[in-house]
Amino acid sequence: MLTLPLKSRNMKTPTGIKITSTLVFIFILFFVGYIYSLHIDSPILRNSFSTTSKNTKSLIQRKESPKRLEIPLNCLNGNLTNTCPISYSGTLISSTKTVENSLPSTKTCPDYFRWIHEDLWPWRNTGITKEMVMRANRTANFRLVTVNGKAYLEMYEKAFQTRDTFTLWGILQLLRRYPGKLPDLDLMFDCVDWPVVSSSEYKQPNATAPPPVFRYCADDSTLDIVFPDWSFWGWPEINIKPWDTLLEELKEGNRKKKWIEREPYAYWKGNPEVAETRKDLLKCNVSDKQDWGARLYAQDWGHEIQKGFQQSNLADQCTHRYKIYIEGSAWSVSEKYILACDSLTLLVKPLYYDFFTRSLEPMKHYWPVKVDDKCRSIKFAVDWGNRHKQKVQDIGKASSDFVHKNLTMDFVYDYMFHLLNEYAKLLTYRPTIPPNSVELCSETMACPANGVEKNFMMASMVKYPSDSGPCIMPPPFDPPSFRSVRSKKEQSVRKVEMWENKFWSSQIK
């Protein structure tokens, strides 16, 4: 056999390898193509392409989204600022265009918005005349008029602490949130706790229509128009932070200790000196002779102020399975903080309501407690709850969800908007600037402010107009649904009272 020289064999080998490699590459390419054709519609690939497409679309949308127009705070003269900036109206006009171009809301307002219709019911046939409004100044702390999106204030009497200040601040933030959206207004506001417009005075055949008075609470025998209280924007005197901030802290407080790990007692901390019913509650405190299942603490605000509010942080008070709500001289701002704690709220039968509490349901959001037999009622609730842990947790979670989802500042502003908008529709005259009023804007309030008051204003200030309109108002109650709401509550309360009575009767035997 002829043997080729070594050099010749080495020269032919790369050619063979090259041909073989080419064939292998073609085969692999064909195989990959075949596999790809079989799996091109697989969920993995589909999701991959979908994700890429969404990311690209999102990126394009972000690039195309118009820049939000920030409404500035112009403290041109620092703490001496006492007039609204000349450019203020121009800024609001630009913001108004932004709002007009915003999308309409697709959110439905929470159910408690339906009570707006009920609160304005007394004027449904007569409308609201200027004479009616001026009659309301008998007890009002201030008159607020808005004309063409600007606010004008006529003060009558300074309110307790900073109630009027932060109520007005809240309304100004509403105007910044929805610039140009609210119609012209003329209203009287009373910052005192107790409602004053007695319905019995206006039920006679020849009686005049009642004066429209705005305040923080009312009861079943009065016609005062309820409005969100000042503490949503902060209560500087006792260091209660603006609601947006505090709500997040309460969420964190709930995470720190699960319900099952909390103290198996009913907790209350507050000022007992403002009402006899609170002093009566203190009789239910634990003692050497009796344990009603309650742990009650009198809050000394003077001492707290001196110590820098070390023992009054509301977010640190979600530590018991049960929390007691009891009214003070009238309704109390503490209700929303108590409901937000994931604990079962033991609600001592109230006389008053604020703007959202009428939609709370016994045994869904709280446990009803007798006002005239508090100790035994609390004892029964605590013992029952410790035996029915899951049911109690469900109620506590429902009340907490109600607050965290339906009582956000977005909905607080929307409630204010709809209430004032519906109120303005009833005015039979066109509001004009009162001769003794001063123009009010965020600058005239925040720029001269100092300390905690200024901090709370800055923390709660609306910086941008809303991207969308207010939530969609639910319809008013029809007579059957209105009766059903009341009947359902009464039945739930009677059911609990029946349980209590049966239990305590058995203890006597």
TrEMBL record:
Organism, as annotated: Papaver somniferum
InterPro entries the record matches: CAP10, O-Glucosyltr/Glycosyltrsf_90
Domain of life, source organism: Eukaryota
Keywords per UniProt: Membrane, Transmembrane, Transmembrane helix
Protein's name according to its UniProt entry: Glycosyl transferase CAP10 domain-containing protein
Entry's transmembrane regions: 21-40
Keyword Transmembrane helix tagged: yes
Glycosyl transferase CAP10 domain boundaries: 181-430
